[in-house]
Design brief:
Mean pLDDT: 81
Distance between the termini: 46 Å
Oligomer: single chain
Number of helices: 3
Low-confidence stretches: 1-5, 7-44, 352-357
Order of helices and strands: HEEEHEEEEEEEEEEEEEEEEHEE
Radius of gyration: 24 Å
Number of domains: 2
Structural class: mainly beta
Number of strands: 21
Strand content: 25-35%
CATH topology of the largest domain: Immunoglobulin-like
CATH architecture of the largest domain: Sandwich
CATH class of the largest domain: Mainly Beta
């Protein structure tokens, strides 16, 4: 459910090529196509603009109440437009948004006016699992590179369930991307509000004293099946990030040092009935391991991810599949190291809806998969591993000043042996 909302606003046919594991994607032209109003709700020349107000770090408390005076001083974004169900028409409910910032974070406040406050819908779910059909939503999209093709999306529903994703190639999305950010919501007789705090450390942007970013605000009204945007993008245009509005007035912001280290240790005892005659059977199978994950921001544009002896034992198991063909089965990637920032390694070879999940040249599930050779014990017993051990992996990803997206991925697996 994480990306249905944004994916529903656009569909795209894409073809890409990949050579090895080193990838590069060029930045599109800054010029927008001239689009007739007959094709959609907004022309390419209609780009809403707002200014960000600089404040001190002690002026805002993320409580969802919007009681701070800074919101009254900040410029306001209004006049949202419907994307669904009546594309191009004014939103049926008023929505307002404000943006301020300090030396470490961007703050966004959104007020969703509601003519029937009792009809506000909010479903309590796990993070990233909020359903726009069952819950109202407020979201902010930030194109901090201002390349009109990549954006970081932050969403929340009325009960505070967070959702985040990364968009690339204008309309495609990386549902595995997760950031560290804060949000709080509140309800009153006028509707509901949300306050976001998005640290600059979670965004990627070029080094410049004066910054202009792309930005958009979105509201979903579940009871009406209505989606509204501040900077609308026609669903007929097959474009989304390139239609964002502009956020100006960001000055003197710096990316703080980005270092995240997560270490782990794990012990496991497995007890299961078995054949006592089997020389490989152990009534009490004890196993232990240690490992670590490192994320290091080399610059504001490039990030290095390293994992040593990763443990994916808590990952959801794949569903059972009966495959009678000569082709291997495809399973979605669920391991965090490979899902985070995986968008740059997607190279669909068959036109599709932009996901390219089932036909990508690069298939990360082959890393650490079960050994491909089998041993025939001929009525005896066998002791074989069900997967290859990943000793370590590294991933470098980011974007150059010229707009090229670059990614390098390398993994080392151990040799596996079977005893018969």
């Amino acid at each position: 459910m994480k990306s249905m909302w944004w994916r529903g606003a656009s569909m795209i046919w894409a073809m890409s090529l990949c050579v090895g594991q080193l990838t590069a994607q060029s930045e599109p032209s800054d010029e927008l196509d001239n689009v007739s109003d007959e094709r959609g709700c907004c022309s390419a020349t209609t780009v809403p603009v707002m200014d960000a107000l600089r404040v001190s770090s002690d002026e805002i408390e993320i409580d969802g109440l919007m009681s701070e005076g800074v919101w009254a001083r900040a410029p306001i974004a209004t006049d949202f437009v419907q994307m669904q169900p009546d594309e191009g028409k004014p939103a049926t409910e008023r929505t307002e948004a404000w943006v301020v910032y300090d030396e470490s974070a961007l703050y966004v406040a959104i007020r969703a006016h509601e003519s029937e406050p009792s009809e506000i819908r909010g479903q309590l779910t796990r993070r990233d699992d909020s359903n726009e059909l069952l819950s109202d939503q407020l979201a902010v999209g930030i194109d901090s590179y201002f390349d009109k093709r990549t954006a970081f999306i932050f969403m929340v529903n009325p009960v505070g369930v967070q959702t985040d994703l990364y968009m690339f190639d204008d309309v495609q999305d990386d549902i595995g991307w997760d950031a560290v950010w804060d949000v709080a919501t509140s309800r009153d007789e006028e509707g509901w509000t949300a306050e976001f705090r998005i640290p600059f450390s979670q965004l990627r942007f070029n080094k410049s004293e004066n910054q202009t970013w792309g930005i958009n605000f979105v509201r979903q009204i579940a009871r009406k099946g209505e989606m509204n945007m501040w900077a609308p993008a026609s669903m007929r245009e097959m474009a989304l990030v390139s239609r964002f509005g502009e956020l100006r007035g960001l000055r003197g912001i710096r990316t703080p040092g980005r270092v995240e280290l997560l270490s782990y240790s794990m012990a496991r005892l497995r007890r299961a009935p078995g054949d006592e005659v089997n020389p490989f059977y152990r009534r009490n199978d004890v196993f232990g391991t240690v490992g670590a994950d490192l994320k290091y921001g080399i610059t504001s544009d490039f990030t290095l991810d390293v994992t040593i002896n990763p443990d994916f034992g808590q990952i959801e198991a794949d569903p059972g599949v009966m495959n009678l063909t000569a082709l291997e089965s495809f399973f979605p990637e669920k391991r965090p190291f490979f899902t985070e920032g995986s968008s740059i390694f997607r190279f669909p070879i068959v036109p599709g809806d932009g996901g390219g999940r089932n036909e990508s040249i690069f298939y990360s599930r082959r890393i650490g998969r079960a050994p491909q050779r089998s041993a025939n014990p001929s009525g005896g017993y066998i002791d074989a591993s069900d997967r290859a051990t990943i000793l370590g992996a590294g991933k470098l990803s980011g974007k150059t000043e010229n707009g090229w997206s670059v990614g390098v991925l390398n993994a080392i697996t151990s040799s596996e042996y079977a005893q018969v």
